[in-house]
Amino acid sequence: MKILIFLLTLAPNIVFSKCDVYYFSLDFGGAIGNGDQIVDYLGKNDVPFTLFLVGKNSVTENGKKVCEKIRNSKNRKISIGNHTVSHEGFNPNHSEEHIRSEILGNESYMNACDAKRVIKYFRYPKGSANPLAEKVLKEAGYLGTYEKFFPQSDAVPTKAVWWTTDTRDWVRPTGASAWAQTQYYNRTGKILPVDEASWRDLIATLKEDGAGKSFNSKIKNYLLENGSEYPQFNSIENVPGLHGPTVQEIVENVLKDSGKKGRDGKNHCFPLMHYGGTNTYAAFERIIPILKASGASFRGLGDGDTVNYQLEDALKDFNNLNYEVAANCANNKQFNYVVQTGDTLFSIARNMINTNRTTCPEYEKSPVSTLVRKILSLNNLTESSEIVPEQVLNIPKTCE
């Protein structure tokens, strides 16, 4: 009873969780304040999560702190996914070369953050699903979720990871997105009052090439013509669903999400959260105790390819993956791997480590390079040897 009373003081007037299993993901776009605190908190509470990393943000002062926290965390179920180099979002004018550089170019940043935690999962920046990006993701061996479960995607089936609820915690409590401004204008014929920083962001976004498509032309022209001076709104009263969420609204958003029914009969929830929100850390401090008291469990996106294998009808054939594991060899110290199109020894070694099929000791500073040398030796290959699709390689279970 004392625990129940305590939890209700943390988040009054809300129901307990509607989901049985939670997969938290944190997008690394925009500002990244409180990121190191969030990593610490989730690590201490043994909560798995996937950081969808934006390359340019990972090398800022705050980004480096976050990556350092991840590298030093004892939480083994923190994983790093791909969120592009710049987080600029894709549009129909982008070439395949540009999209490829944004996706594959980000892998070096991911590995620099913590190569041992990198997994083949991708999230679109700003939800900008793109057919050319799907082509790149498929060729690069990325895993994803089916459009049936995440209808925000324009691509079917999608190789990206989507979500069951977006907490919108990236928007400042006194700010608003372009979408929110349009909704308010269509409803009232007025501009939604926001703080000055949010106003400047809004105008800057409208001036970007290809931006502002979520605005109707009337409000877009008005803002571009009159947006140089901040309107100095008399007051900024929070409009739920339009202004950025309060801590309470973030908590409610997560707990009210009913998720998707899994093959195991349980409800699986994929809350989308961000490091950028000023209220995100405080919301986590309320959410996690409530979920634990509700008996919910936590899983990471890298846990046995959960997204692909646990949701109803989302099973994927091994042919859609970039690896195929055959029966273990007789000595039980190695296993077979069938080379796929586009594979290199380096990419194979990295995938084996990232999917925990091969384990390397903590002290190993260059686990991927060490494993490549092991594979060469085990298969009587040299550094100049070429591998071809359908070739069977022996892969050691350990780097030692």
In words, what does this structure look like?
The chain is an alpha/beta fold and 400 residues long. It has 3 domains: 2-170 and 248-310, Glycoside hydrolase/deacetylase (TIM Barrel, Alpha-Beta Barrel), CATH 3.20.20; 174-244, no CATH class; 322-396, Membrane-bound Lytic Murein Transglycosylase D, Chain A (Roll), CATH 3.10.350. Helices cover 36% and strands 12% of the residues. It is built from 15 helices and 13 strands. It has helices at residues 2-10, 35-44, 55-58, 61-72, 96-104, 107-114, 131-139, 178-188, 196-207, 217-226, 247-256, 280-293, 306-310, 345-354, 367-378, and strands at residues 21-22, 24-27, 49-53, 78-82, 118-122, 165-166, 260-261, 267-269, 271-274, 297-298, 325-328, 334-338, 392-396. The strands form 3 sheets. Strands 5-4-3-2-9-6 form a 6-stranded parallel β-sheet. It has a 4-stranded mixed β-sheet with strand order 7-8-1-10, with no helix packed on it. It has a 3-stranded antiparallel β-sheet with strand order 11-12-13. A hairpin with a 5-residue loop joins strand 11 (325-328) and strand 12. Helix 1 (2-10) runs antiparallel to helix 12 (280-293), helix 2 packs parallel to helix 4 (61-72) and helix 11 (247-256) packs parallel to helix 12 (280-293). The radius of gyration is 23 Å and the shape is globular.
> How would you spell out the order of helices and strands?
HEEHEHHEHHEHEHHHHEEEHEHEEHHE
Number of domains: 3
Q: What would you give as the CATH superfamily of the largest domain?
A: Glycoside hydrolase/deacetylase
The CATH topology label of the largest domain is TIM Barrel
- Strand arrangement, largest sheet? 5-4-3-2-9-6
Described by strand count, sense and barrel closure, the largest sheet is: 6 strands, parallel
State the CATH architecture of the largest domain. Alpha-Beta Barrel
| Helix proportion | 25-40%
Q: What is the CATH C-level name of the largest domain?
A: Alpha Beta
Q: Low-confidence parts lasting 5 or more residues at pLDDT below 50?
A: 1-8, 146-156, 304-331
Mean pLDDT across residues: 77
Got a strand count?
13
Describe the global form: globular
- The N- and C-terminal alpha carbons lie at a distance of 51 Å
Strand content: 5-15%
Alpha-carbon Rg, integer: 23 Å
Classify the secondary structure makeup into a structural class. Answer: alpha/beta
Number of helical segments with 4 or more residues: 15
